[in-house]
Amino acid sequence: MGKGVWEIKAIYPDLKENQSNDSAFVKTMSQLKKYLVPGDYLLIVFILFLAGAIHVLLHQNVAQGETAIVSVNGEEVYRLSLKEIHDIPILGTIDTVHVQTNGSQIWLHGSPCPYKICEKMGKIHLAGELIVCVPNRVLVRILPQKRDDLDATTM
Ligand SMILES: [Zn+2]
């Protein structure tokens, strides 16, 4: 074990200098502390809180979607609420595929396409997510939330 430490010191001969830098940093911090008044700590806490709140708001934008659009060959054929339960046959360009919802998620099953990639995409539920079946020309897209639409029109 002692040999290992010795080797590290051999590789980093300036390790001791770094340590003195560290203590300089600690000194600076303790000096800084003298200049910080209680109000500054409040400000720091407030900024951290604000950052957290913004993070939560941004996260909500990509959270649970509400409405999904099913289109075939680029044309909308169904508009479904993810909060309801559906199992609807959709006629694609090859054959029928089923689009199913369970009250929060949406997915495709029973697809006639060769590799079933659309089925392997699984169940989606986030605003903006989509499932594509290229061979059968079927697209399921969860609409982005209204806040996004507002941002898009006002910006
Ligand atoms: Zn497919």
Any ligands, ions or cofactors bound here, and which? zinc ion
Order of helices and strands: HHHEEEEEHEEH
Oligomer state equals single chain
- Measured between the Cα atoms of the first and last residue, the distance is 62 Å
Q: How many separate domains make up the residues? A: 2
Q: What is the CA-based Rg, rounded?
A: 28 Å
Average per-residue pLDDT, rounded, comes to 82
What CATH architecture of the largest domain do you see? Sandwich
CATH topology group of the largest domain: mini-chromosome maintenance (MCM) complex, domain 2
- The share of residues in helices is 40-55%
> Which stretches of 5+ consecutive residues score pLDDT under 50?
none
User: SS-based structural class?
Assistant: alpha+beta
Number of discrete helical segments: 5
CATH secondary-structure class of the largest domain: Mainly Beta
